[in-house]
Design brief:
globular
């Protein structure tokens, strides 16, 4: 199981790199600092290695504290989902040329991006974070859907509120406003999702 954990951390790193690259491209951000720059494809090496190392350290520190071990795994999955959510949202916004301040047109994009991220999250949380061994049941799935919909609602409401607030006061680009809103919204919804998954969906 320990070796599988390291493999999962590496795979999650690759997924994070793919959608993180989209996020950076859409926000026109480069990996440059102090005159030194890295190509975006380097994320496919940096993130898997970084998450692999981070998990090794966390697993050693919290090997006998289940709650903290689960929280560490949840954080790794959470970072991936932030990139999935924002990467999809900004890509769809650009593809359809939608102004993020146009709430009506943005709602479907926010919901689609958040829904994909949440489904992706459920897969990894069930298989890895909480290592659920019992087969799925209708009742369990219904509870998951309820917790997920609450998280999706929080994510969407917070995203729209921040887009409207930041957009009215800031001269930032459309994709950067959208990115800021999704980071804040995802942080709040992930907090809810962890508690909901831990104590409701995957409770022991």
């Amino acid at each position: 199981m320990f070796k599988k954990d390291y493999l999962y951390a590496g795979v999650i790193g690759l997924i994070t790199a793919f959608f993180g690259r989209l996020l950076l491209i859409n926000n026109e951000v480069t990996l440059a600092y102090g005159g030194f720059s890295l190509p975006l494809w380097s994320l496919f090496a940096i993130l898997p290695i970084a998450e692999f190392i981070a998990y090794i350290i966390a697993s050693k520190l919290f090997s006998h504290i289940l709650f903290l071990k689960q929280l560490g795994r949840f954080g790794i999955v959470g970072l991936m989902n932030v990139c999935v959510d924002i990467g999809i949202a900004t890509t769809l916004r650009r593809a359809y040329g939608i102004d993020p301040l146009n709430t009506i047109d943005m709602l479907p994009i926010l919901i689609v991006a958040s829904s994909i991220a949440i489904v992706n999250s459920y897969f990894w949380q069930r298989m890895w974070t909480f290592a659920e061994k019992a087969p799925p049941t209708r009742k369990g799935f219904l509870v998951f859907v309820i917790v997920t919909l609450i998280g999706l609602g929080l994510n969407t409401v917070v995203s729209v509120a921040i887009i409207q607030g930041v957009g009215a006061l800031s001269a930032l680009s459309a994709d950067r406003i959208l990115t800021i809103s999704k980071i804040a919204a995802t942080a709040i919804s992930l907090f809810w999702n962890f508690l909901g998954y831990k104590f409701i969906v995957f409770k022991e």
